[in-house]
Structure to design on (463 residues):
């Protein structure tokens, strides 16, 4: 990308603190979402019918169906992309009014559905990815929505959609954008969401509303989170225990999104008029989308049929051998395609739902880390660093010998992953070895690809 035009990514371009919302259009979008949900449930027999003289709540599923049911049952509209067996929807999350950089998108997820197999994929796109934003040049992708909103209120979602299309080479006809306030209220109105926190972590730098910081903590295990708690879980990016990166945050965001989808489509939500009314109110003020009513009916139908076990999760990151590399572009930190052309991103996007490609994907190397020194905690600290870079850590602890001066990476794949071995050895400034000595043993039941013995030189290089 040496031929990219020079731009100042640190230029404090003005983004409006607030953009006047188009209330009528947004309320219709919100009503479409919930009406679609209610209508689907009614069609499937869960709500019955309305008697001619019966009085019902204006926001109840019965009332919605009575008003539009007869028309919409016949007017379900196919989604753009169904003919090609691939429906793409861009999901965007932003702070919204009252937050710093209110229209910068913190969450960017390309959601794809393959109707013929009931498969779906969530591809998280990092906000620092450098892309060509139509009309604005090479910028971080999270600027697309903000720049467009500054120039023409209401156009941000479409600008972000077009930026993703250009960078990933797939059609993205739809977008859904929600702000933090809407996210919190939606989850609260649903009665919370159930999230399984994989590992405990704390974040001492989570921002407060008055531009200060606070410490937040999450314990491992299944728990129900309200809107505020779920938002913190999805936003935290300075966590301990391997949760301190944008990439770790992206994985958590996908978990929250799936939990929200399950709760939204549950019978307890679709048959509760009060919940539906509250959701409509929340969405009308905080959500923007270009999906129309009839398309939403079809989308809900597809969502109900998705097999949760067949949802592909992918986070684009700069792990060794991965699709992105970190770079400094005109004084700003950015992420760029590792192949220098961007074709690797297009290949990932095009094949993410291809079962043959999925089956053939190489797994991130599995590592066991042993401390070959007397430096306390060296193996643990190194495991966190390598986990953050995308490696799978199957075990860490102390080695039988504690006199290593330089780190050694032992290859347990019999030479099957030579490229990965070199990347890892270079990363750790370690010696690569094809065989392990007789005294050394692997301590975990899950056999690693590489066994790392840390030397004293690693203490300074891991800081």
């Amino acid at each position: 990308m040496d031929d990219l035009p020079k731009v100042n990514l640190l230029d404090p371009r003005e983004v409006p603190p607030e953009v006047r919302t188009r209330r009528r259009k947004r309320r219709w979008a919100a009503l479409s979402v919930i009406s679609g949900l209610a209508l689907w449930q009614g069609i499937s027999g869960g709500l019955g019918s309305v008697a001619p003289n019966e009085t019902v709540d204006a926001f109840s599923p019965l009332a919605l169906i009575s008003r539009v049911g007869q028309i919409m049952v016949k007017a379900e509209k196919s989604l753009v992309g169904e003919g090609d067996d691939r429906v793409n929807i861009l999901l965007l999350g932003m702070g919204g009014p009252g937050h710093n950089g209110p229209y910068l998108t913190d969450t960017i997820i390309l959601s794809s559905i393959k109707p013929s197999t009931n498969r779906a994929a969530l591809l998280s796109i990092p906000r620092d990815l450098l892309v060509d934003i139509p009309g604005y040049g090479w910028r971080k992708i999270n600027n697309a929505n903000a720049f467009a909103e500054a120039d023409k209120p209401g156009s941000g979602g479409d600008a972000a959609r077009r930026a993703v299309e250009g960078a990933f080479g797939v059609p993205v006809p739809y977008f859904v954008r929600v702000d933090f306030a809407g996210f919190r209220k939606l989850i609260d109105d649903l009665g919370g969401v159930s999230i399984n926190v994989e590992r405990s972590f704390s974040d001492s730098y989570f921002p407060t509303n008055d531009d200060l910081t606070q410490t937040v903590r999450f314990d491992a295990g299944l728990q129900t989170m309200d809107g505020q708690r779920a938002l913190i879980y999805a936003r935290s990016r300075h966590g301990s225990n391997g949760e301190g990166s944008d990439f770790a945050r992206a994985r958590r965001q996908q978990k929250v999104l799936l939990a929200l989808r399950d709760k939204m489509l549950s019978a307890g939500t679709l048959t509760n008029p009060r919940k539906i009314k509250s959701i409509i109110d929340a969405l009308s003020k905080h959500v923007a989308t270009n999906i129309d009513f009839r398309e939403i009916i079809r989308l809900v139908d597809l969502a109900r049929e998705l097999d949760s076990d067949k949802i592909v999760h992918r986070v684009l990151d700069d792990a060794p051998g991965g699709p992105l590399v970190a770079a400094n572009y005109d004084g700003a930190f950015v992420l760029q395609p590792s192949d220098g052309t961007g074709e690797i991103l297009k290949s990932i996007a095009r094949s993410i739902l291809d079962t043959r490609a999925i089956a053939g994907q190489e797994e991130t190397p599995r590592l066991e880390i042993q401390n070959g020194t007397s430096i306390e905690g060296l193996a643990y600290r190194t495991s966190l660093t390598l986990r953050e870079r995308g490696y799978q850590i199957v075990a860490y602890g102390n080695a039988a010998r504690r006199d290593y001066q330089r780190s050694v990476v032992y290859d347990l794949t019999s030479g099957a992953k030579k490229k990965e071995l070199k990347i890892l050895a270079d990363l750790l400034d370690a010696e690569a070895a094809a065989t392990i000595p007789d005294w050394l043993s692997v301590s975990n039941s899950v056999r690693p690809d590489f066994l790392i013995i840390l030397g004293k030189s690693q203490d300074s290089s891991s800081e």
